[in-house]
Structure formats: C-alpha cells, structure tokens
Amino acid sequence: MVGPNVVYSIYERVIASSLDPERLPRHIGVVLDGNRRWAKASGATTADGHQAGAEKIHEFLGWCDELGIKVVTLYMLSTDNMNRPPDELEQLVGIIGNTLARLADGLENGHRVRVQAVGAPDLLPEGLAETLEDLQARTADAEGVHVNVAVGYGGRREIVDAVKELLLEADAAGRSAADVAAELTDEQISDRLYTRGQPDPDLVIRTSGEQRLSGFLMWQSAYSEFYFCEALWPDFRRVDFIRALRDFASRQRRFGS
User: Fold this and answer.
1) I need a surface site. Which of 147, 176, 221, 235 has the fewest CB within 10 A?
2) Identified catalytic residue from 35, 65, 81, 202
3) Is residue 148 flagged as an active site residue?
4) Global pTM value
C-alpha cells in the first residue's frame, strides 16, 4: 500500500513540473501565522511553536532559492507583537535572533541569502537590533535570495516614517510643508519606505486560514495577489507552496484596470 507521503511527493513533482518560470512571482511576502495555535494543538509550549515556525523559515527559503524567487519578505514580529507577555516576547526575540544567526551561515544547499531589516529598530531590544545590523553588513554582498526580515514592523508606522523622512528632508532644504504638499506624489512615498528600491510583492501568502493583512506591506501590496492557506505556518509544506505558485500563475493580473 502506498503511503500518503509518497502520494504527496508524486503530486508535488507533477504540479511543480507544470510551473512556468516566466510566471513565477519575483517578490513574495509571507505572513507567518499560526505558531501559537500549532503549539496548542500539539500540546507543546508556545516557545516550541515559535521554534517550529523558525525551522520552517529555513526550509521555505530553500524552496524559494530552488525555484528562483528573487525577493522574500517575512513578517516575523509586528509592532503589535511587542505588547505580548514579557516572558513570551523574550523567548520569541531569542528565537528570532538564533534564526537570523543561522541565515548568516546560508541555506542548507550552501547558498547564502542577503538579509535586510524591515521595521523600526528603535522598537527592538538592543541585542536584536544589533544582530540585525550585523547580519545586514555580513550578507550585503550575497547573491542569493534577498530576504527582508520584518521585525518590529507595522504598515502604518512604515508610512508615517516615510512621510516624516520626506518632511525632514524638505525642512533641511528650506522648503515648507505647503511646498511638499503641492508636489507630493506616490513615488515620493515609495522611495522612502523600508523596502525602497525593491519591486512590490507580486504575491502575499498568509497561513493559518486568517484572511487579512494585519498591517503587512500596506502600501506595497496595493496590486499584489493574495493567497490564504489553511495550514498553520509550522505545518506549511512544499506542496502548499507549489499550489500557491500555481494559483498565482493562473491569475490574470489587472493592476487596477
């Protein structure tokens, strides 16, 4: 009798072989949701759930590397998450720090990723902020997947920070707020976002069955395609990812038209 794992493996290979490389997303955003629910359902601790989710990150980035996905943004710690109970937050921050340290060493296939912090560093514990800064410097020349690590991230905060930067630049140049308002364009905001210079996400995936963005890449995702998966993040499989890519490739993108 053929086991379910063998069946899924065959199915995965079949749908993966049907993917057109020309129709794959360049930039994928992922809301890594469901770690705590996974822990509760498994009878494990919340820390175990976050650790399982961290392990899935390395696996997921390996899949992206294999398929030629150029940019990935991982929603790992929101500004709202900073209000979690101190013990849980401390454990989560420690797991994120360890995960980032492993990313610096490269993926399991030996490929290195380029890591960029996406968020407000002033909201982070000092040690984590330093880890992110060091990791950015160490991986700046890596040619693998560009990984945006959204830590201490909030979409509203990002837009506010972009506007503040624009106004401060104008003030330094002796221009008034009225001058800025008269000439303001969406490109000026885009050029001051945390992800400035990068393509907007073509596809945003959220696990755990929740169907909302929770403030993730609010500006950048205006014309993104969305894929909501029922699997909790630690249970997210390669076949689930392939299904998301197949669904994306089948859509006719209209960009507001």
Assistant:
1) 176
2) 81
3) no
4) 0.93
Task: For 7-26, give one letter per residue: b (16+ CB within 10 A) or e.
Answer: eeeeebeeebeeeeeeebbe
> How many whole angstroms separate alpha carbon 171 and alpha carbon 184?
14
Q: Edge-to-edge strand order for the sheet containing 203-206?
A: 114-118, 146-153, 71-78, 27-31, 203-206, 225-228
Question: Is 33 known to be catalytic?
Answer: yes
Buried b (16+ CB within 10 A) or exposed e, 36-51: bebbeeeeeebbbbbb
Q: Does domain 25-154+198-250 sit in CATH 3.20.20.140?
A: no
Catalytic residue (one of 33, 200, 202, 235):
33
Which parts of the chain fold into alpha helices (H)?
4-17, 35-42, 46-67, 86-104, 126-138, 155-172, 177-183, 186-190, 238-250
